[in-house]
Fold this sequence. Notes:
63% of the residues lie in helices and 18% in strands. It is an alpha+beta fold and 199 residues long. Strands 1-4-5 form a three-stranded antiparallel beta sheet.
Amino acid sequence: MNDVNKETAAEPQGEAADTFEEALQEIEVDAVEIEQDVDELNRLFADACVRADETHDKLMRAHAEMENLKRRHAQELEKTHKFALEKFVSELLGVRDSLELGFAAAQEASADVAKLREGTELTLKMLADVMGKFGVEQIDPVGQPFDPEYHQAMATVPCADVEPNAVVDVIQKGYTLNGRLVRPALVAVSKAAEDGGGA
Length: 199
């Protein structure tokens, strides 16, 4: 009877030992897999750190490049503002030279008025050419309808032979720069002639 009990008692202990062994093996397998996962995660983390460092380096270089571009752009803009009129001034020097020559000729006792007029006319043409070259256009609206955008009325003149509200005289010419008004033309504008007779 004791032998039977020993065998019966040994069986459950053997099964428990087998189950324990299997559980232990599963834990060992899980531990190996976890270790492999940890190694893989460490590798991925190291790669991510390297890429983050590279990205940070690129970002810092791009930032430095942007700062350099901003500085260069500011310097170029300053030079552009400073020397924007250089070509215009260079062209105007010829006009000034011509005016000085005309003025010197007018100071002479034997000055020829006809030649002085001719020289002045040529100088004015030279000035008009220079201004036109740089987009400066003259507003000389005699005979045109009054346009408050480009003309400033200084007087109204009764005119029987001209339509009302037309420019009959230009007191001072106006100018535009590339289509933008710089100075309006000062003009006299026609109005209907008043009847001489009364009621």
